[in-house]
């Protein structure tokens, strides 16, 4: 509340963080007919209204009440950068002026939003730029959902479809599991954003202690940042490995509920001279035996001061060949958005941006 007793945005109700059932309960509490909840839900998640004024089929008194009680539906973009390859990155301002980063990656038959779950990260993986930032805070479910509604509304104006969501932006989503679970429930709702469980992926560095709960509650695809199958190397690259080692990670991956022909995606950043030898590829194949798997080989995206360099194209191709020849689907994920700091592991604000644009 402000000094004048007017609710500040922070204390207002955030519709984007409510499930459909909760919104229905709220409308009942407000003394409205239950169909109001459906109308409102549809304005927020299907028609992607950015203000109450747009909701023209709601009665005037109801709109006045909403305008008084709810928080803004859309975060404010403070920066927008477009890569030569079509990838776009936004810095979006939260109510407390915290800034969250969101990326859109257009592809031929789909469009993927990469959302952040935290601002900064507590896990200091030395090849990841986000890891150089301290954890500022967890994002709320509403803030996670609003990254999706923001990008979908922006793209809808241009006739571009948003079909997939990956929780692979800033932060470790399993360290914010409660908000992530709620956000996923809202994003999946078939009467709203309707992004199905096969089009949603969570990426973890391997927080084994939260994986069983996440698997039970999320029912979406799992990606794990592996980067080495040797504990001594992974201890360096993904320090959480010292707490949850490879054997524990393997057990947790095996227990993840996969649907039908589903597979665990293993992310593997190839770092020159560190984890990219043919022997590393052969060990990876052995380690994956028995787990339905798909391997995503990521080229290292450099950033100023990064203590690693990317593997050569030949090395990447040789690595891929070894893993693919063992019958494992192995994709080289081309880096997208690297020229605007939007690629994997580069999210750290626009600190080194020389072409910052405000929208
Ligand atoms: N914290 C989660 C999700 C966000 S990181 C996780 O670690 O899985 C998203 C992906 O980007 C991870 O696979 C991570 O290993 C990868 N990544 C981080 N820094 C990178 C870099 N500089 N180049 C390429 N990929 C990177
Ligand atoms: Fe955090 Fe993932 Fe980056 Fe590691 S790779 S520092 S877990 S965001």
Summarize the structure.
The chain is of the alpha/beta class and 359 residues long. The chain contains 10 helices and 12 strands. Residues 121, 123-125, 128, 130-131, 171-172, 205, 225 line the site of iron/sulfur cluster.
Describe the structure.
This protein has 359 residues and is of the alpha/beta class. The protein has 10 helices and 12 strands. It folds into 2 domains: 15-69, DNA polymerase, domain 1 (Orthogonal Bundle), CATH 1.10.150.530; 76-340, Alpha-Beta Barrel (TIM Barrel). The chain has helices at residues 20-29, 34-45, 60-69, 141-157, 177-188, 208-218, 231-237, 246-255, 278-288, 313-325; strands spanning 76-82, 88-93, 99-106, 111-114, 118-119, 137-138, 164-167, 200-204, 221-225, 264-270, 293-299, 329-333. The two termini are 29 Å apart. Strands 1-2-3-4-7-8-9-10-11-12 form a 10-stranded mixed beta sheet, with helices on one face. A two-stranded antiparallel ribbon has the order 5-6. Bound molecules: S-adenosyl-L-homocysteine and iron/sulfur cluster (SF4).
């Amino acid at each position: 509340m402000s000094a004048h007793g007017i609710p500040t945005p922070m204390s207002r109700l955030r519709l984007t963080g409510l499930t459909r059932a909760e919104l229905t309960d709220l409308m009942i509490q407000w003394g409205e007919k239950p169909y109001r909840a459906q109308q409102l839900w549809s304005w927020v998640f299907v028609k992607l209204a950015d203000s109450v004024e747009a909701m023209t089929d709601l009665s005037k008194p109801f709109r006045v009440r909403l305008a008084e009680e709810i928080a803004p539906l859309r975060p404010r973009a403070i920066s927008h950068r477009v890569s030569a390859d079509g990838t776009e990155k936004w810095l979006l301002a939260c109510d407390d002026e915290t800034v969250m980063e969101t990326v859109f990656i257009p592809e031929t038959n789909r469009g993927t939003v990469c959302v952040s779950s935290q601002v900064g990260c507590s896990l200091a993986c030395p090849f990841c730029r986000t890891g150089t930032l301290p954890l500022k805070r967890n994002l709320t479910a509403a803030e996670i959902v609003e990254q999706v509604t923001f990008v979908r509304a922006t793209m809808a104006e241009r006739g571009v479809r948003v079909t997939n969501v990956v929780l692979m932006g800033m932060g470790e989503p399993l360290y914010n599991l409660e908000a992530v679970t709620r956000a996923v429930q809202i994003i999946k709702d078939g009467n709203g954003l309707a992004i199905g469980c096969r089009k949603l992926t969570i990426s973890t560095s391997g927080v084994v202690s939260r994986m069983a709960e996440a698997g039970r509650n999320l029912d979406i695809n799992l990606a794990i940042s592996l980067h080495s199958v040797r504990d001594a190397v992974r201890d360096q690259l993904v320090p959480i490995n010292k707490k949850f080692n490879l054997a524990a990670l393997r057990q947790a991956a095996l227990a993840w509920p996969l649907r039908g022909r589903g597979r665990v995606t293993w992310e593997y950043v190839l770092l020159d001279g560190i984890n990219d030898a043919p022997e590393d590829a052969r060990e990876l194949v052995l380690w994956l035996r028995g787990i339905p798997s798909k391997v995503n080989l990521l080229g290292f995206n450099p950033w100023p001061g990064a203590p690693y360099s990317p593997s050569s194209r030949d090395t990447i191709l040789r690595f891929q060949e070894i893993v693919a020849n063992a019958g494992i689907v192995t994709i080289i994920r081309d880096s997208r958005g690297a020229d605007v700091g939007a690629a994997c592991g580069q999210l750290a604000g626009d600190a080194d941006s020389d072409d910052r644009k405000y929208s």
